[in-house]
What does this fold into?
Amino acid sequence: MKPESTSHADLENRVLEKLLAGNHPILEALRRQLEGGTVRSREFTGVGFFTKLCPSPGAQRAPTPRDRFHVGGVYAEITGLCHGAGFVLFVTDGYLDFLEGFCYDEAWPTQTQGARLYYAGPRERDPAAIDA
It folds into this structure.
């Protein structure tokens, strides 16, 4: 997915790439949905954001037995945030739905360039959890 060129859009792209990394049919299908996909809308909440995604036209549904699930486990160190940020990708009916970014008890920064992304905590992005 290639939204407009801003530091926030760049962060979204990097986060989506990290969330969907891995060799699994569900993750592979979701990555294909990003190719040619667009951002439908963005809402900044003051402590994070919701980015509504529109998969590429004609994209195939991800082969998942569940109607809804999320992929998480990606976090970031961002200048201006003392406690960092986290990200969760929500999938509905086998299609990308929205990306949520959030921080902990502080305001979301206006600039996110140079954010360091990492995996931490429970392996929510583990494909075995998606198949459950």
